[in-house]
Amino acid sequence: MMEGNVLPDDKFKIVLDMADKLKVFLLARKGIAVRFLYTVMYAVIFMILRFVIELSALAQFAILFVTTKPHESLRKFSNKMNTYTYKVMRYMTLTENTRPYPFSDLPAEIEPMEEEVKF
Fold this sequence. Notes:
mainly alpha, 68% helix
């Protein structure tokens, strides 16, 4: 029996077409959802990195007040953390596609630190 101008076979084709379109729609968004979940994870890592960098800055100044010279190992560590934080921010803001550490190697320093600290 015909309902309106659409034959039963046509309704079946329409449902299949809609199902295919829904599948394509969901598959296209799967990558977005996965990237979003990684971004949430990196947002937590970013908060931890920020805290670590703040602590290293405070420690650097405490050492500086006591010894009157900067702690070179702590400066190198801070520079590496700054570079890693930069890479995390680039991934989170969709300006870089490579997932940062722990899914890839720790990045090399972007800028070498200045040799002498001036006041």
